[in-house]
Write a structure and sequence with these properties.
By secondary structure, this protein is mainly alpha-helical. It has a domain of 87 residues. Helix content is 70%, strand content 0%. It is built from six helices and no strands. Helix 2 runs antiparallel to helix 4.
Length: 174
Amino acid sequence: MGQTTAALRSVLVVAVIGGLALPSRAQAPAAPAAPVAAVSDKPAEEPSVEERRIVAYVSTGVAVASLATGITMGVLAQVQFDCAKDIIACNGTLQNKVVGDELFDVRAEIDQRAILADMAYLFAGAAAVVATVGYLRGFVFVDEEPAPAVAARLPQAPTLANLAPVAADAVVTQ
């Protein structure tokens, strides 16, 4: 086995070195590289208030639908689990009786429905987080004006240059 491994290694080394040493006649000359687009230093554009509200509405719908799916699959899994616990009593009410190896199939179905319910709950939770952020950014913390325009409207702190004309007017009026 050791000789086979050594022989394979030597063949591999010869193939790699031979491939590197041979001029590549079959390869076409390399095409010039495409120009790279310049990366802009501008910040990414923020979504508008309407887009934030749309995200909030859509994610709320997804959260509600996922929650409904989770509840439905959870209830179905629980009912089927209760039936599988007491299969003799449950078979009396079923049209299609569960017999033999079908019990394993029923248990697999229970597991699938329970996992589907868990996944739907997780998806509903994630969608609820997105909806909450969408509502907060779209309805509560709405900033219609950009920051520089707001800063221009803020009152200025008094300086000596601002106070000098006021003091001169006060002296003249006395």
